[in-house]
Amino acid sequence: MSNAVQFQVEAVCPWSGARAGRLTTPHGVVETPVFMPVGTNGALKAVTFDQVRNCDAQIVLSNSYHLYLRPGHELIKEAGGIHRFIGWEKPILTDSGGFQVFSLDMLRRITEEGVFFKDHRGGREHFIGPAKSMVIQNAIGADIIMAFDDCVKNPATYDEALASMERTHRWLQTCVEHHSRADDQALFGIVQGSMYEDLRERSVAEVTTHDLPGFAIGGVAVGEDRSTIERIVFFTTPLLPASKPRYLMGVGTPWDISYAIRCGVDMFDCVSPTRLARHGAAFTRQGRISLRTSKYGKDFTPLEDDCDCFTCKMHTKAYLHHLFKQKEQAGGTLLSIHNIHHLIRQAVECREAILSGTFKQYFEEQCALHESDQLARTAAQQS
Amino acid sequence: MSNAVQFQVEAVCPWSGARAGRLTTPHGVVETPVFMPVGTNGALKAVTFDQVRNCDAQIVLSNSYHLYLRPGHELIKEAGGIHRFIGWEKPILTDSGGFQVFSLDMLRRITEEGVFFKDHRGGREHFIGPAKSMVIQNAIGADIIMAFDDCVKNPATYDEALASMERTHRWLQTCVEHHSRADDQALFGIVQGSMYEDLRERSVAEVTTHDLPGFAIGGVAVGEDRSTIERIVFFTTPLLPASKPRYLMGVGTPWDISYAIRCGVDMFDCVSPTRLARHGAAFTRQGRISLRTSKYGKDFTPLEDDCDCFTCKMHTKAYLHHLFKQKEQAGGTLLSIHNIHHLIRQAVECREAILSGTFKQYFEEQCALHESDQLARTAAQQS
């Protein structure tokens, strides 16, 4: 239906089904697989958009739930849309608010039309449903907008998961009917079904009856363990149409990204790089490290020798350790830059391996790193 | 004595004595007058060094008191010096710690050798005196280092000011004797004397008996009112040797800078741009504004139309207002960038006016702006 975005698969790994592609949006081309940094309130925690740009970010995500509450979608429309309001002229994706109203423990009442909830800060009662979410996201004006879904937390019983999934499907129909800017905003449908494979299969079948420009896997990383996440992603991804971009919502870590790409996912978002950074943790090829520990006090080497992010080019672990000891905000900023760059690079490396036909080897190396990292963590916990 | 820095006066305003000059240091040339952003702990609050560089900063200041406590001057020496440790290859100035130990209310005991004080965070007792300050600053390795002085708070009685000044003079002698890197670090002497003109005159006479590469006016903006600050700067600056750089410590606002340049000062530092930014205040040519106020909620123009800082090029007041309402750290970062850039530009504009022979006119415009800003503030306070 919509020609707001076009997706072209450039290469597929015959061993895994991992894909490299190009997603053309009204604000430019996104090469996939791609990691999308998250700017919840229209800003990334501790990082400015020029720093995000210097991390080679191609697209960022923002939350329509937060933007609806403040400054309000109408104000963003008045400002000329989200790109002008936040000062980022590349592609933007907004989520629908479904995840927030179901997960932030402020849920009041669910009706067939949507959800009444209390503002997580003010206490005022608000309402968002599928039709309202389209009004909000159409006003905000991102390149890609998401269907308003019912995102059930795990563990969920089969009946809870079924009811939530069916509501998600009915709401998708409403979203499709109320989306008023299909020419310049691409609406992605969201597959639910919790950890039940038959529900995931039914959800894919139902959601893909709509000829949408992209599809997402929702309801993942909402309480279930890592192996369950991996099983669901492994099972669900190949069911989605091969010709459309596939977006795994809210995932993840460097390993999660490699694994999901191996399953055929094209797009990811997660707050982990900035959240971990504020707590002093950095992604490295050898696993996650904490810059708070005194072992880095005299380590005059960068976080990673071969990393070309600003932080690694200019600063040592000893300096970063000093900033965290001094509670200097610059510490969180510099680690955020590194972590965002790390996840973006992870996706780019996967892309290059897929294009050059070496993805199987690349993925096996990632598996070995992941395994030794897991062993090291287990050992650290036991010692 | 030292050839660590060379200063060349390029032009003097015949009306005021305002000067444009070039200060050549081991890490590059600084064009004066110059505003020096302050990175207390070896980092600027909320701003990375690439952002400081993009504000056209030529030189930054750091505090040897803070660096001595953490991470320690020996560690910085081991890292290869302050430039390498913090990742800033342009000139750096460190202050001596005198101001901190006298002003942070942790003073324990003054002896002829120095000051015993409690760490402002840990509670451990420390000692810094003129000899020790040279050891610390020589280890840190900034291009310009400051004498360890006794900085008395205002209001001070004449006798207090006299005793403090005489101690400063004795300590300067000790600093000169213990400074071990005169070839690559320039030691600046500091004039004290509180608000007493005869003491300031005596202090200049005594401090300049040492053939030092630069001189500073200390003990200003330490409790006295604005007109007293202006009187002291107006009186003291022309007494300092015309061939050496003159540094006014800890001052100030856009107006303070214009005024001090008019008196013949060449260098300034102040935490005001970053401190005010964190509280939502921005310097503009029309005076200081608060981005917290709701009047900017729908103002889709930049802080200043003709400002070429990153913040003004990319963002509107409405967006900045939104960030402060949302308590997003990026708000403080973006305002810090603007405020630092504003003070740096202020000094550059003065320099250009001095070089082109139009400083009198430029300064009169600044006076008119300052006067209307003061009137507006008074009116705002009375309404």
Walkthrough of the structure:
The structure is a homodimer of 383-residue chains. By secondary structure, the first copy, chain A, is α/β, with parallel strands linked by helices. The first copy, chain A, is 43% helix and 19% strand. Chain A is built from 15 helices and 16 strands. In chain A, the strands form 4 sheets. In chain A, strands 4-14-13-12-11-10-6-5 form an 8-stranded parallel sheet. Chain A is globular and about 60 Å long. The A-B interface holds A 41-51, 66, 70-71, 75, 78-80, 84-87, 297-298, 300, 310, 314-316, 318-319, 321-323, 325-326, 328-334, 337 and B 41-51, 66, 70-71, 75, 78-80, 84-87, 297-298, 300, 310, 314-316, 318-319, 321-323, 325-326, 328-334, 337.
Q: What is the strand and helix layout of this fold?
A:
2 copies of one chain form a homodimer.
Chain A: E1 6-12, E2 19-25, E3 28-32, E4 34-36, H1 49-54, E5 60-63, H2 64-69, H3 73-78, H4 82-86, E6 92-95, H5 98-103, E7 107-111, E8 114-118, E9 125-128, H6 130-140, E10 144-146, H7 158-178, E11 186-191, H8 197-207, E12 214-217, H9 226-236, E13 246-248, H10 254-263, E14 267-269, H11 272-278, E15 281-284, E16 287-290, H12 310-314, H13 317-325, H14 329-356, H15 359-382
Parallel strand pairs in A: 4-14, 5-6, 6-10, 10-11, 11-12, 12-13, 13-14
Antiparallel strand pairs in A: 1-2, 2-3, 7-8, 8-9, 15-16
Helix pairs in contact in A: 6-7, 7-8, 9-10, 10-14, 10-15, 11-14, 13-14, 14-15
